[in-house]
What does this fold into?
Amino acid sequence: MSRREPQFNQQNLYDPTPMPNGIPKVAEIGATSAPLTSAAYFIGDRCKAFNDDYMKCKDESKAGELECLKEGRKVTRCAASVIKDINTHCLQQFNTHWECLENNNHRLWECRKQEMDLNKCVFDKLGLKKTIPGAPENQTPVHLRPKQLYASFPGPQY
Amino acid sequence: MPQDMPPTGGYREVQYKRNVPARGFRPITYLVGMHLFMAYGYYKLFYGIREQNELAREKIWGRLHILPLLQAEEDRDQARRYYADKAREQQLLGSETKIYNSDRFVRPTFGYTPAKAHN
It folds into this structure.
């Protein structure tokens, strides 16, 4: 009978050949999803120009995997600088917030208190501000509301 | 032969109604009450959906802000594998075969397995 041992082969398909020398090296961001979610709006605030530039390059070259490497490096360096600055100045608030996100299925509305602390620290130290584009102007932005209808804790969040 | 006739004064009235007292409030009370209850629910739902929309907006913009970062990382990985494949082909065959009639980068369907795969 043709039976064989079940075996995952993802790790076998990993090709460890490094990038050719002609292309400048860049350290990858190395952060997991929760810290990136936590820092997303600050990355968006500081790196908007680089991000837009990169996406424009991708759009104009239809796919741009090989054409937009330069812009991609700028995007990664900028995001890494944001993470580095947050780690330098607001490490404690940042850790508290992303660990809260990690424990709450990445639901931002469960972690408003930690988010307020982080946003305040980041705005004071780095001058980056969280703004949600396209939100209705005649009401409080959702991340600033003390009462979150869907939070597990029913009372005021902060 | 004498015919059967009703008794004098007529038959007794047949009792077909149940003699049970009606329970509860008047029916109109229940109808109005239900509508008030539903109206309150829809009132809360209205604001709930408004907040859901805002939360969805917050989530998608958070994702959009890190999207170029994730895409750039993926692109670099694809480029690295692409150049590695080309170098390998050059080394093994001594030539480069153009598979597609296009200069566009095409994500390869099949990946390369290193020789020392079974370790």
